[in-house]
Structure formats: structure tokens, C-alpha cells
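Researcher: Final request for today, and then I'll write up notes for the group meeting. The sequence and the SMILES for zinc ion follow.
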Amino acid sequence: MEIKFVGTGGAFDAQYGNSSAVIRIGNKTVLLDCGSTVFSSLQTAQLLREIDYVLITHFHDDHIGSLSTLLFYYYVYLKEKEVIILYPTSEFKTMLINYLTFSMISPEKYCSFQPITSFPYILPIDTFGLHVPGLVSYAYYFQEANQAILYSGDIAHPTFLYNFILEQNLQPDYIFHEISFFPSSVHSYYREVFPYLEIAPTFGYHCDPSQNPSDNIIPLVYNSSFLFSQSL
Ligand SMILES: [Zn+2]
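Model: Predicted protein-zinc ion complex:
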């Protein structure tokens, strides 16, 4: 398994790209989130044609805003290859189709939808209401052979996910956790993540690295080898 981020910024940190990652797992390439800047980042990184599956954490534009562009691209330029969108629940599938219908009219003409259980390497973790009250959202746990990683998605506090790891006896090799450098009601303040750092090597994303406070002990994906641009 391999994970490379194509962007690590928050919603308003467009210069760092919307947070998104490409994960090589089960001999397939999974795009995790496809926010507004992601199509262009994939194009620049020459990754556009590599995507087999798309997985979405939630419906904010910085996580899904260029998905229809990606699907149109595959339909127009890569007719022999179809993107498969994995969905954690039938409710989520309905939301995806409703969202995409506004720009695509018939989204199922351009891609196929499969339950996440059809690709047995990813465990969805329901974080409903924990990013924004009332908002459907998911974290995802990727596991192949004896390698595992946890991807938090957007979440207001880290406690739930760390309790989930302990309760389910998950043993991630790496945790990628969203962090905010400013107190926020919808994102995890970086200091709240400190008590959990001994569980697994943890990297922060969904933030502006130029604002990194001097007392932050969480390494950033932006400065790591997990950022795609640094491995080119
Ligand atoms: Zn969000």
C-alpha cells in the first residue's frame, strides 16, 4: 500500500491544494476526495489517467468540487476506462447522485457506483455530525496485508476516532489527521491531537503550513514524503 497526497490545504488554502490523496491498494488506485483544486492537481502531476476508484469523505466543495470534471474527463478522453465511485451506504450513494445530477444530468452514464464492501480493503467510519452538526461525513481505514492507515476526513475533535481505534483494536501504521492551527468548531485544533500521538505515527493535513505554530509537534504531510510533488 502506498499513499501520496495531491493537496494538503484546508478549504481556503487553495495554494496548497484541497486535501486529497491517491492510494495504491489492492492493485488499484483510489482517489480519496476530489475537491475543487484536485482535477487540476492531478493533471499537473500526470495522475489523471491513473484513477480506478473515487472515495469521498463529505460533500463540501473542497472535498468533492471537481468530481464531475474528473468524470467528464474520463468519459470524453478515456472511453475504455470507467471510474468507479465507492459509497459507504445507500444513503451516501443517493446523495452522490443527487449532487452530480445538477451538472451531469445522468451521472450513471459517466461512471459506475459500487458499495465499498465490493473492494475489501477499506473500512468506512461513520463520523456523522462530528465535522458539522447534521452533515454526513466519513473517515476511512485502509488495510492490505499487514499494513494499515487511518484517514480522518474533516472532524471537529479527534477523540471519537481515537476511541474507535482502541475499541476496534485497529493498529494503523500511520494516521493522517486533519488539524487546524486556530480554535475551530468544525476542525480539530492541533493541540487536541497531542494526547493521541503515541498511538501511531501521525501526520497533520488540511491546514496552511505557513501558519504552523512553533509549539506544534505534529509533523505535516506538507513537509513529508507523503506529498506527491516532493517525490516527482
Ligand atoms: Zn469540510
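Model: The mean pLDDT is 96. Residues 2-231 form a domain with the Metallo-beta-lactamase; Chain A fold (CATH 3.60.15.10).
Researcher: Thanks, that's everything.
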